[in-house]
Amino acid sequence: LRVISYCFVCSYPWETVIKAAMRKYPNPMNPNVVGVDVLDRSLDAEGRLHSHRLLSTEWGLPAIVRAILGTNHTQTYVKEHSIVDPEEKKMELCSTNITLTNLISVDERLVYRPHPDNPEVTILTQEAIITVKGVSLSSYLEGMMARRMSANARKGWDAIEWIIQNSEREYASL
Amino acid sequence: MNSVGEACTELKREYDQCFNSWFSEKFLKGDRSGDPCTETFKKYQRCVQKAIKEKDIPIDGVEFMGPIKDKPES
């Protein structure tokens, strides 16, 4: 079991970041996400927006890992639940893989909040729990996944910035 | 972005467009009225649910860490 956590600061206001986060895919930083579907979406009594989404991903695991895990499945499905609270200005997003669960589980939790001292800036905290099950070398695999995810965490933030810059260009060209 | 069901991608685009404009123009600006995309969503959902069944994707019964546990869905 590995737990990794990060904190990033982004120099855009919360609303801008959230808009980008909701339409984060596709982006060039996460080519492994090949499909996104909304399964359910509703407002709760407190006016928060809940979205359940299904992500279709290509993990692109190295051949050695596929050999150790004994699978050729490269397509993996991830379920994601996000809650946007426009009053409190908080977006929380949890995700977990729903296939290959007998081999590995990757649980992620992201929270986007405005910086307490500067509303023009948004803070993203991100944590992930990786568990590889029932294979020898699991600590090796967990370490490797953790390194991959560390790289991906940074990419996630780059993706948000890319979306923001791109949609600004989009609006500007209208 | 594609849908899990190839046939649903067009319906998904239509829904996404409707949702995204409601989300940025109304929801984030404090308008508490629901999104106007219900009809589009229903059509899109019928297509997606069919694709999920065909591909045998286990979307039910997955435990999440985080908000679901401390705040069960109603």
From TrEMBL, chain A:
InterPro entries: PRELI/MSF1_dom (IPR006797), Slowmo/Ups (IPR037365). One of its GO terms (cellular component) is mitochondrial intermembrane space. Residues 1-172 form the PRELI/MSF1 domain. It holds the Pfam family PRELI. Coiled coil: none annotated. This is PRELI/MSF1 domain-containing protein. It comes from Monopterus albus (Swamp eel).
TrEMBL record, chain B:
Pfam families: UPF0203 (PF05254). It catalyses: a 1,2-diacyl-sn-glycero-3-phosphate(in) = a 1,2-diacyl-sn-glycero-3-phosphate(out). It comes from the Eukaryota. GO terms for cellular component: cytosol; mitochondrial intermembrane space; nucleus. One of its GO terms (biological process) is phospholipid translocation. GO terms for molecular function: phosphatidic acid transfer activity. Keywords: Disulfide bond. Belongs to the TRIAP1/MDM35 family. PANTHER family: TP53-REGULATED INHIBITOR OF APOPTOSIS 1 (PTHR46403). This is TP53 regulated inhibitor of apoptosis 1.
